[in-house]
Amino acid sequence: MRKSIFIFLSFLLIGAMVATGSALAASSIVVAQDTPPRMMNPHGDDSDAGLQYMANFFDGLLQRTGPGGKLGPALATRWEHPDLLTWKFYLRKGVKFHNGNPFTAADVKFSFERLSNPEVSEFLNTGKSIESINIIDDYTVEIKTKKPIPWFANNMHQVFIMDKESTEARDQGDVMVKPVGTGAYKLEEWVKGSYVRMSANEEYWEGAPSLKKVEVRPIKESSTRFAALVSGQVGIVTGIPVELFDKVKKNPKLEIISRAARRSIFLALGNKPGSPMADIRVRKAMYMAINEDEIIEKIMRGHATPAAQIPDPPTIGYNGDIKRLKYDPEEAKKLLKEAGYEKGFEVTLSGPNDRYVQDAKIAEAVARYLAKVGIKAKLDVKPKSIFFPDVAEGKLEFYLIGWFDGTFDMGRTYFKLAHSRDRDKGYGGLNGAAYGDPAIDKLLESTADIVDPPKRKETLEKLNAMAMTDKIIWIPLHYQEDLYAVNKGRGITFNPRPDRWMVYKEISKK
Amino acid sequence: MAAYIARRMIQGLIVLLAVSMICFVIFRYMGDPVVTMAGRYATFDEREEVRHMLGLDQPIYVQYWRFISNAAHGNFGKSYVSRVPALGLILERFPATFELACTAVIMAFAIGVILGVVVALKPYAMRNRLIMTASLGGISIPTFLMGILLIMVFSVYLGMLPPFGRGDTVQVGAWRTGFLTLSGIKHLILPAATLAMYQLAVLLRLTRAGMREVLTEEYIKTAWAKGLSPMKVIFKHALRNVLIPVVTITGLQFGEVIAFSIVTETIFQWPGMGNLLLTSMYESDRPVVVTYIMMVAVIIITLNIVVDILYALINPKIRYE
Amino acid sequence: MNNHLIKSRMLYSYLHDPSAIIGSLILVVFITAAILAPWITSHDPYDLEKVSLEHFLTPPVWMEEGMAQFPLGTDDQGRGILSTIVYGCRTSLIVGFGVVLIAGTFGIFMGLLAGYYGGWLDSVTMRLADTFFSFSTTLMAFLLLGVFGPKGIMIVIIAICMADWVRYARTMRGSVLEVKEEAYVMAARATGAKDLRILLRHILPNAIAPIFVVMAVDLAVVIMLEATLSFLGVGVPLTKPSLGMMIAIGKNYIYAGMWWMIVFPGAALIFLVVGINLFADWLREELNPKIERKA
Prior knowledge:
The structure holds 3 protein chains of 3 kinds. By secondary structure, chain B is mainly alpha-helical. Helix content of chain B is 74%, strand content 2%. In chain B, helix 7 packs across helix 9 (182-215), helix 8 crosses helix 9 (182-215) and helix 9 (182-215) packs across helix 11 (230-252). In chain C, helix 5 crosses helix 7 (153-180). Chains in contact: A-B, A-C, B-C.
């Protein structure tokens, strides 16, 4: 009796080992990413960290491809913008969801209406901006917005289409963990906190992807991710920590792939009347007191490029004529003296400590530079879940933040960050220091109706120049750099996207 | 006896309610989930809608009452981050934490007690003195430092053992286990050793001290004199008496085990409940944190009651009125 | 009474026990270093103005690229490891002694009352104590600080005291329960002495002995706890790192081969705690035969 139990258990053990072993062998690639997916509901997380997972299981009406993130057709083959409020999409025929259901306009209408439901969606703003969705026929949809939104189509690569029938039929908990989309990959297994395994959708409308099996291991600790790479357990690692960069470079088995990120890191300053920062000279002084080159060299280890503004070059509104102010602490002290703050003043510098590359360290360094010109900055760094609500409430004096806009349009960003806080119109929702300037507001509001691209570009660039040079709304620091490392010798071809999404149909292996 | 049990249970319930109330009050200071949940581009009105949906615009006693009445039905709310029931999220990770904690406790108990006995028998032998010195180190090195040192030695420099995750796991029914794969076992070694180290040292010292005392007692000397075999003497008589305080302390140290497992899980990125707690705290995921605390409270209170009852059974004289 | 004899006996045993002397010596060294911190360090690593990124991540002086100015190397913000360790020890000791004093005083007080008066006061106090204690000091401190955030040393001390007072109360209560029945206490009561006088003059001095052991052990426990909390990021603020936080910062660099950021603070922490534990061990042995050990 004992003997047979023993034999049985050994078989079980061997069988389990073999089973898991073979699963790994067939896996085409293992990737270590820095963030895990929160859920398999494509509307529930509007952060890029979450959306990138969804981009593998779902498709949007449009998609962005190529190094410039060019907007192109996906589930919609073309689109039109007949008037200020209307957007018409012509849908692709013959597309199937993972469960076999055909993709039709009804699914589009369902998905967009779902965006307004706060229980399942973080895209409330997009959902609520829609007035109506008309199904003209099975493959044509017309969306009308409540107000003119020039960047509406630009956002369509982030809004994913779900299968109406199966989403309504299942219970919400199931929807949160099992994705049914049209995407290039089907979810095989999601063990929370450990891995996400996906396999190729052979019937994908764009053609089956070349990588047949992908395993993503979310590893939060950067040094642990590095260890996984060095030990050969993973093929690609996203988000190499800057301090380990040299180690990776020296390792002949590894290859670094870097690209300038779209995200810019900057400091926002309030301008309450009577406060020191209401004086433009003080703002200029603070700008000049910070040694950004040293921050880039020492804290970012050279993996950042100095920024003179918030939008990055491909964004409409980027103004190449704006230049950074030079680092000049002596001049800064002079300006402070002129403004009557020779002895300096006290200010609280807030920021997140778990959101951007080296965020807390950058804030620390900024505090130190300011201390050297007499400004006593008290550091208040906290987790992003506490920091961002503070920003939303506009209670901060002076803080560090980063931004990039998936729509490639500066207007949307400015309405949230630069416009004075206006509850009724819904502007300035993330204007954390309650900055307000009537000239900026006026010029910004005038862009809301401009859809003609050249005119839009011109006005936004003008606004940008006013904001950065005349008003110094923010002190720009740098653009981050995205760093990836690949294990050479596995024949992996990987071109990172500008938005840092890991979309596996774009990666191939020999 | 039944009355005693009933009374303890009622007291336990009161404590539970008190804990939940304190939790609730404290978590008002824990950050506002509305901003993240409404999305980056939400307007003030859209945020208000989310606030209303979460019931966060109600006065606190209303929120508390809703929480309690829901909890009585087993509904602890949905995680703000993952939008699935908080209790389910936590329970999903229970197997991982349980396997880690059990392995560690067994390691600590077995090695600690046995070594404690060995050392007590010949306190001045060289080997035993070394063991005692090592145990001094064991209680002087905080768990997190132990974990990091183990990683440095065994993963970074020797490359022998993996420093993160559970490795490959097998789903057996509702339980996801790491015991059935070589990779799973390899991944268990460092975290379990880290978690066990402190407890092991404490148990070692405790057992040794207890044994030393007991070995000088009259009845032990009598047994020696009677000519009983040394093994029998040790295990049947001495050890049994030492074990009672040892076991009690181990039982009551449960809170410590939970606390230290949080640290260990964080360092090794072990996907257990402790790791979830830490990430939830950083993300201000109130439902998960509150549920976790309530769960821990329930377990600890139950454990206390059980230990008290056992004590009362063993010695009818010891009973709080 | 026989206090005089006891004290001279203790002194004798102390002078003849190497581990006791070593332990207390280590402790004295650390305390002295902590007090003299501003004078013995080359710079104040907590002062933002004095620290500069220029010399960050330098290895210890005996390795190549090391600098004499920073004998043990620097961390990633340019703080000298040696200086930060000295200041960090300060934090550890302040938190340690702070908790022992505050939790100790409160616990002794509660234990005295509970043990002496008994009745409902006793059972309520003990119930309360049980609840706090079963959550374990670590868990409670962690949860409290996790919610309120790293706002400074005072908050850390308070959070730890929340559950730590229990061990003092329990020990005191047990001790009081015994002393209560002693002849001299009965005598004092019989002569009509007031409760307060009995408590302070007769009970307290005779019941206090085991508390000293608890204090010594607790000091070590609290220092380790502060290090753990800081490591997790819920202890001291980022700009004033204590030993635990130094290790947290250094953890990210072990794969890059920059071991000094962990090894030196770690060693300092271990030394300090070992010193305290050695002394506590001796103390426990000393006071043991006279009093029953408490859990």
